[in-house]
Amino acid sequence: MKATIFATAAAASLLLSACAEPPPPQRPVPVKPPTEIDGLWYLDQSWSQDARQWYYNTSQGSQIMRYDWFMALEDPQTKAPFVKSLTRYGYPVGTAGPWNPDRLPLGFVKDTDPDKTEWFGMGCAACHTGDVTVNGKTIRLDGAVTTGDLYGFIAALSQAVHTTVTVDGVFEPFAGRVLGPNATPEQRLALFDAVKAFDASFALFVAQSTPGTPWGPMRTDAFGMIFNRVGAIDLNLPANSRHPDAPVSYPVLWDAPHQPRVQWNGLLSNATAIDALGRNSGEVLGVFGKIALKPPKDIAHYYYDSTVRGRELVAMENLLRTLRSPVWPDSLAGPVNTIKAAAGETIYQQNCVSCHSPLPRGETYTTAPIIMVPLFNWAQPSNAKAVIAAFGTICTKGVDAAVAAKMITVNYAADPKMAVDALCRKMDTGAIAGIAMPPKLLGGTPLANPDLAASLLSNAVIGAIIGDLAREPKLAGDLLMGDKAPAPWLAPRTAATWSASAVTPEGTLDTTPLVKPGQPLSEDHKRVIAALSQQEKPQGPVPAPAKAAAAASKAAPSGRAATGGQATKDEEALAETIKSLLAYKARPLDGVWASAPYMHNGSVPNLYEMLLPVSQRSVAFKMGGGALDPVKVGVDSAAATSTFLFDTTKPGNRNTGHEFGAGLTDTQRWELLEYLKTL
Fold this sequence. Notes:
The chain is of the alpha+beta class and 679 residues long. It is 36% helix and 11% strand. The strands form ten sheets. The chain has a four-stranded mixed β-sheet, with no helix packed on it. A three-stranded antiparallel β-sheet has the order 3-5-4. Strands 8-9 form a two-stranded antiparallel ribbon. A hairpin with a 2-residue loop joins strand 6 (129-134) and strand 7 (137-142).
């Protein structure tokens, strides 16, 4: 009897097993599980805690205001120290430790000049480290989009400084905190005059940085801010200023060092450590780095004095080369549906892979492939003269005028303002008109007047790097060593000093000669300067971006250039460069779940809406606090911390384009979305 029962049970078990569905496919995640440190969750992105703390707290040369002033500043709204108010503008609390003894907010740092003057400034992490909150847990993502509101911060800082010198009863306590109780009346008066002068200059900067359309958190007009800073503030030419109204999301930094071209429009080549230093030096100048744009006094001192810290920038880039994208955290955000993800992988291969090549996780790679997606279709793409003429019309009359003249039609209908501004904007070059960086005998091109803003910025960046080479002899070696250069996060913490001289208020040049009397340039210096000169020269069959924009602008100043006749080889190359740069970049999508909001300008809140037709996307949505919607994957607009209203009808905020998912069924969209979580 028992044998019969057991046999029957066994047969039933086999029958049920045969009818059951197979187990779901396993999700390979060759990374360590999340780690909690001081209430924050960190994902395995291949960085040690020492490395990330060094990155969070190392100066790149940004100097917003005197450090002792900033720490003594009072928030007029709360009457508390202003430093404690930065979280109100989306900047996360920093981690206490030897790298951050004053516990500054994440990404804000102390910079110390050789004369021991200390400055408060911004580091890379202020814009490229993000906190994401999901299911009550906060995940700190290295290299991700900040939740900070840059304009909100600088406007509030300006108001706090202004209140200090204009409202009764505010300056005296401030002076006591800065100078101590035993300061003389003369010392207090000198401090008042200095703060008042800073108030005026910083208020001007904020006014010139005020966008017509609010950026809100997680975005900035990067090129607009840099162009204003260099062209209007550093050159002391206020007429060069323009409201920065082409905002973009802060790009995620994992994979960025491995991409052949960087910036949303691929404006900058990224083949070497010197290319990377140029890009990063330009970024420093846009976030309160100082540079004295004065004509060099002689060939031995042929550079611009600046606060750019080249060795630190090289080390940061080397560290970023090791950064991997974060893996979707099942234990915190909920498990991936692997059955849907498996179906979604097939859809990805059919619809997405041609532009967004997957990067194999767990494997070493040196190149992150990108695709430039053209913004426009050219009416006469094979006629170089016609392309140059159309570009002239775009720059002088606008995109709509070029469309009306039937020179172009819209292809990838994303908001084109960022790409057009970056290539078309011109500026008065003032005191450095006619100056070449590097000098003409080493291959540099003199600045015209006016000239392209991109050309002015390139000139300033190269001059700053040459200046740093003069002050920091080891910089050339670091550049040539590449990722074999020293890793400072592995060394004991030392004082944040810098061997370069400070820029004086008058903008005087450093006295350190690049070439010492009777001594030739070192071989390292020769190689680095030769590489800098190549940034201004044609690269292969296509001219360098800044040179191409300048040549196109001169060739078609009013959009009425001749379109007949045989084009020259230079015109042919120029036309190809124009077409390639009026485009936006499609990059690998590893870690895409952690890079919301989407599109280059942050105009789409989540990945689900990226797969919808434009007509079905949100016209407006709330964002800002870093809350993650784990279902639609992106901004959780319903979260209490999402307080900024993003209006896609405003200039620069257009959410059109990228309708490659419009033809999918809704089931397919959800399957593809699940697969995107796994990248």
